[in-house]
Amino acid sequence: MGLAYARVKLANPKLPKLAPVEADALADTGSVHLCIPEHVAIQLKLEELERREATLADGSRRVASYVGPLTIFVANRSGFAGAMVLGDQVLLGVIAMEDMDLVVDPKTQQVIPNPANPNIAGSIAMGARERKVPNSARANTSSTEK
C-alpha cells in the first residue's frame, strides 16, 4: 500500500473570521494524532494547551506543543480536534479519522467516508447506555428537584 493523502481544511473555531488553512494531509493509520507544522499553528493563532511527548516513526521521542481547538474538514465531514505541532506537513491520524468516520480506501489511496455510513458519520459507543428511569421514580423526582 502506498501513501494516502486527503485535502483538509483547518480552522480556529475561536476565531471564525480568520481564514482557514487548506493543505494536502498525509493520512497515516499508524499515527494517533493530527499533526500540523508550526507555521499552520501560527497562522491559525492556536493556543498551546500543553506539552506532550510523542514517539516518532523512527522510534525517537520528542516533546511537542499540543494546540487547539481546531475544526477540521475532510471529505465532506467535519470534526473538532487538538493537534501536535510536529513535522513539515499536515498528518491526519486515526483520532481525527475515527471521529469523522473516515477510512483509507486501499484501491484508490484516498480518504473517504466509511462506506458503511456514507451519509452521516457513525461512531461506536459500546460502553454508553441510555439510563432508563421507571415512571414511578420519574414522578417522585420531578416534584423534589427544584
Describe the protein's topology.
Elements lengths: L3 E8 L9 E7 L6 E3 L1 H6 L3 E9 L5 E14 L2 E9 L5 E2 L1 H6 L2 E4 L4 E4 L21 H10 L2
Parallel strand pairs: 2-7, 3-6
Antiparallel strand pairs: 1-2, 1-5, 4-5, 5-6, 8-9
Molecular structure report:
- This protein is α+β, with helices and mostly antiparallel strands and 146 residues long.
- It has one domain (4-144): Acid Proteases (Cathepsin D, subunit A, domain 1), CATH 2.40.70.
- The chain is 15% helix and 41% strand.
- Strands 1, 2, 3, 4, 5, 6 and 7 form a 7-stranded mixed beta sheet that branches. A two-stranded antiparallel sheet has the order 8-9.
- The longest helix is centred in the last third of the chain and has 10 residues, at 135-144.
- The mean pLDDT is 90.
Mean pLDDT: 90
CATH third-level topology: Cathepsin D, subunit A, domain 1
Q: What is the end-to-end distance?
A: 60 Å
**Count of strand segments:** 9
Low-confidence stretches: none
Structural class: alpha+beta
The string of secondary-structure elements, in order, is EEEHEEEEHEEH
Shape: globular
Looking at how many chains there are and whether they match, the oligomeric state comes to single chain
Look at the structure and name the CATH superfamily.
Acid Proteases
Strand content: 35-45%
Radius of gyration: 19 Å
For the record, what CATH class applies?
Answer: Mainly Beta
Quickly count the helices: 3
- Portion of residues within helices: 10-25%
The biggest beta sheet is recorded as:
7 strands, mixed
> Could you say how many structural domains there are in total?
1
Using the 3D structure, state the CATH architecture.
Answer: Beta Barrel
